[in-house]
């Protein structure tokens, strides 16, 4: 299950963030993206439908079927990605980016929702980390692959940057068609386990958190879930973590170019920070599950992100700034599965998990909008306002994390004293 989902999410990340690579490969000149705020506009319009459509997507996921819905999403955005190779103006490119965001919206929240229903609370971060690592590693080497594709520039009269969209879009469509045979359903709807094996899975989940049997999501339940302040705290923290992650994804090649490296070297130097990020994601995911702690490791990774932002933003040495990119990417990438696990561990019932997962991840889309607007063309090459904004987000994340940790400790103390947590099972304790 995890390799298939990891591969598909890697494709999603590549298709979402290869805009910066294509820009460095000549799209900037051909579509005049260097004028005014055009590049920022083309970058952030993707996140409008991506943010809005995540919630309704999770609502219909069980009715439509996980396999059918995720396959439809992958093939559809692959077709849009391919079409981006034939646009003739930045406005056409922006329209394609809107469609890309619409079709990708249902994929990630649905994917995380499904994974969290299969595993117990202290197994889930390693699994989220595993599929995320697959996507990071593949996505990290995508600039090298994109560089190879740029060597096709001029073939059939097609510019180098367009070949990136065309070939990667075709690969996405192919992956989407093949994935239909492998994408899993929810545990109670799966078709690849025997009835006895399914009962073992459901029994483990029931013993751990008591929600193996799915409950129906109604409007009344939805409104009740949305009134839970903890869900909004998780969403804000996720927003804060994604801002530097998206900034690296969209601007790392451009930042490296500003340090004096050639286009080829800038593309090649993009990969190593992602290898480092993959290592940190798995290390912190393993530690977090082993010690059954979330907040302390999220805080450590946020500190790493802060250090990386300071080095990249305020040091003159290109080598030190490059080290800063390693730390920023590693810290922010590790926080993402950590926060998803933190949220999932402290959420009970399928209906609330559907709402919470969509809400939290949609705030990641808001983080993408924020990142693409605070890293402005006018601030090239250092992007200092964007660095300041990213630093502020990390401080806000730490403040929210402190608040939820204090609250969870107090509520767990009530359980140990025999008092029941309102709205939770009598024996349920929060994961700190």
Automatic annotation (TrEMBL):
Which terms in the Gene Ontology molecular function aspect does this entry carry? Answer: transmembrane transporter activity
Under InterPro entries, the record lists: MFS (IPR011701), MFS_dom (IPR020846), MFS_trans_sf (IPR036259)
Single GO cellular component annotation? membrane
Record has Transmembrane as a keyword: yes
Question: Which residues belong to any copy of the Major facilitator superfamily (MFS) profile domain?
Answer: 1-417
UniProtKB keywords? Membrane, Transmembrane, Transmembrane helix, Transport
Location in or out of the cell: Membrane
Q: How does it sit in the membrane?
A: Multi-pass membrane protein
PROSITE patterns per UniProt: MFS
Q: Where are the transmembrane segments?
A: 40-61, 68-92, 98-119, 131-154, 160-183, 231-256, 262-284, 296-315, 321-342, 354-375, 387-408
- Which is one Pfam family of this protein? MFS_1
Highest taxon of the lineage: Eukaryota
Indicate what this protein is called per its UniProt record: Major facilitator superfamily (MFS) profile domain-containing protein
Which species does this protein come from? Agaricus bisporus var. burnettii (strain JB137-S8 / ATCC MYA-4627 / FGSC 10392) (White button mushroom)
Q: What is the lineage of its organism?
A: Eukaryota, Fungi, Dikarya, Basidiomycota, Agaricomycotina
